[in-house]
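Collaboration report, partner site 2.

Our partner group contributed sequences for two proteins of shared interest, and the home lab folded both. The records are reproduced in the order in which they were received, starting with the first partner submission.
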Amino acid sequence: MATAEPPNGLWHRNNKAHQSDELSSHAGSHDNVQEDNLRQWQKHAQKVKVKVLEQVQDQLSDILDNALTESVQPFTHIQPTVNGKMTRKPSSRSQKMDNGKVFMDRASLLDELFEISHIRTIYHMFIAVLLIFFLSTLAVDYIDQGRLVLEFDLLFFAFGKLGTVTWAWGVMFVYTLLVPYYTLVFWGSLYHSLSSKLGLSLGTGLILCAVQTCVLGLFPIYTVVNNQLPPASRFIVILEQIRFLMKSYSFMRETAPVVMRN
């Protein structure tokens, strides 16, 4: 036979159920509060991120504007003429040649670049990094071996056979100094006295071109290959070959028209 549950037990059970409902509702409200706080924090972080990006972008744009302004400053002395063409202000030191060319003293491209503070900063940073690398290498060698290890074997190898480089450079220098000049002197002395000016010019030009090809074209290459010059010495010979070729060509190009007119 079933017995009736006492009213006290029923009340306790209802009370426990009510407390569990309150706890669950309190936990749910606490979770909702945490979610709201997380959303607000995400919104705040997004706003801060946008502000920081805007500030960085503004600063970068200001830096770029300043760099462009400073890079344009060396060219502010260029002024437009009446015809719309760009002309430079005349320099204090200039020399006008007979053929109409005007030679003016002006700064080189590197000088104009070094007028910009950012370029100077990069240059100084490169020197500082090079010094730090050098000092760190010395410190590591001293710590590992207890002494300064100054090895110049690679330097001696790269600039080896300097005697061969010297006499090859001397041959090219003497040729560039004497042969184009005396060739133009000989050609100029006969140009106005002979009737066949075209034949004289062609003959002299072909002979000079052949000698130029042999001395300033094939001779440096033969010296480099035959003597198996190291990298730096080879570089010196080839660069001097190009320099002498440019100088001789410039001299003949500027002098030949003057001889033909006079």
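Second partner submission, folded after the first:
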Amino acid sequence: MDELYYLWQLAGGDITVELKKQGLIRSRPPILSIPNLVILLGQMFGRRDTAGLLDLRVIKVPLDTLRQRLSHIPYIANYPWLTNQMHVQSQEDLIDAASQLPLIIRERDTEYQFYRIVLYDRLLQVYPITQEVIIKEAHKDIPPPVRGAVWAALLGITGDIQKRYDMIDKETPTHTDRQIEVDIPRCHQYSELLSSGAGHERLQRLLKAWVRNNPHYVYWQGLDSLTAPFLYLNFNNEARAFECLSAFIPKYLHKFFLKDNSAVIQEYLGKFSQIIAFHDPQLANHLRSINFVPELFAIPWFLTMFSHVFPLHKILHLWDKLLLGDSSFPLLVGLAILKQLRDSLLTSGFNECILLFLIFPKSI
């Protein structure tokens, strides 16, 4: 259903328009929609806007445009053929031209997305046998509706994840609860999903579960931002979001969440400095001359794998590639950011560099 709705939107469907046609959405002055009370976790009381109340009416949306867009696709395209070597045989010729287009165009191409979704559905049905093929296909692109499942496959998630998640105590109060409650309302609040009351509750459970399941680590600010992309993609599957987070941190943030992580972070930033010096000596010398060291700007990058500094839609694309690399790949991402800002950095002093990193250019 999620995949069909996604394709329907690509074909021009707009659920807001359909709901307005049926009278389920009415324009009202914003002042009449303000709740009387909002508590820390985002729950609202005294809301006078009935649009937020449960309505059991079923609205049928027209599928004519989607049918027309996909009418010429051969029936065999619904069944990608995998050989004994798990090589995809039936789609290369069908989508070869579209696959050369920029990613942003491919993600808006209804026909191309249909082919890719069908292929990934087929591969995910027999995962983990198809893990190598999933990795190969992920190097091309990952369709948004299957991104959560594909990320889990890239991280090697298997087994009864729901049972493992259910066994973790997520209710008993811990000494980190207060800090988690403070951080959650600030985490990607531009996202309607994550800023909702249900989003806050799920994020809190995931963070408490991770802290409880990793007693040798502690909660550091930034873990909420690190968890947010997994929750966003698996909003109705907390167990998979938790397993992805649990596999992601040891691979890319090994020992970053120790109680005393200063030595680990210093070693990581030392490697980052060496990479900058090797690939761009001029930039490295300039930053060193103005005493603008990685400790001043790069710790939030690596502690959150850039999820604290970039908006969610950019993080999803960035992590599509990050998950295909090894633990050193984030260092190269950091280098790429500095390359993007190179001209501005070379002509800036210490104060200007600080301001530059406080407000990232939208072009990155």
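Feedback sent to the partner group on the second submission included the following. Strands lie at 37-38, 44-45. The domain at 173-253 is CATH 1.10.8 (Helicase, Ruva Protein; domain 3).
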